[in-house]
Amino acid sequence: MQVKVLSFTGAARRAQIIDATLAVIADQGYGSASYARIAERAGLSSTRLVSYHFSSKAELISACASQVISRIGEWTGAAVHAEKTAAGALAAYITATVGFIDRNRAPMAALTRIVLAGALDYTPADDAEAAAPLEDLLRRGQDSGEFRAFDPAVMAHAVQRSIDGLPFVLEQKPETDCAAYARELAALFELATRAGESSMPGGRIWAAPT
Question: Tens digit of pLDDT for each residue in 139-163?
């Protein structure tokens, strides 16, 4: 099997095209992401430079989505792995992911538009695989006694979906304080997952039902 090895220049050109594609989709929508607009945004002399590096639009869009998703994973993973407790890791996951979305609004808007357009071959199995690390974190917290008994799959999806909605919020309210948004979500899921007694506003204490 022949393996195509990209030169430094070739890799830089691919990255340039991916960045331009994400920018076009974020600004003008998925349907407007023609090779002509992408080439213009990237400052390329011809659309043939796009088709040279990507055999199809599907391959290009897949590369765009993979880049954003891998960057989220690297950013969030570093924050989670720095924590020693499951509770700290869960808060770090929420805070870091919200922070990434805040700092990368255009790429995240583009990824959201790609997903909504049905342009990715994303199956329920892919969704389960994406949620698996968060489920493992929640199970670890249950095993250590930090978290109460609950279904880790349900909780993981609740956490993830609450974060997934942020790009839509930012579309309507770009002035949203994302740091406050992250704190609110972290507090919400701290109360939802913690074992034993939980604090209520006003200093009241309530015992989790058994």
Answer: 999 999 999 999 999 999 999 999 9
Rounded Cα distance, 61 and 115, in Å? 10
Global confidence as pTM: 0.83
Tell me the DSSP string of 27-49. Answer: HH-GGG--HHHHHHHHT-S-THH
DSSP state of 199: E
68 CB-near residues (< 8 Å, 6+ apart): 22, 104, 107, 108, 110, 111
Quick check: is 52 in a domain? Answer: no
Show the domain range for 108: 63-202
- Determine which of 3-7, 21-25, 73-77, 141-145 has the lowest per-residue pLDDT on average: 3-7
Number of structural domains, the chain?
1
pLDDT, tens digit, 9 for 90 and up, residues 48-67:
999 999 999 999 999 999 99
The domain that contains 128 carries what CATH number? 1.10.357.10
Residue 161 lies in a domain: yes
Phi, psi of 149 (to 5 degrees): -75, 125
Is residue 186 one of the residues assigned to a domain? yes
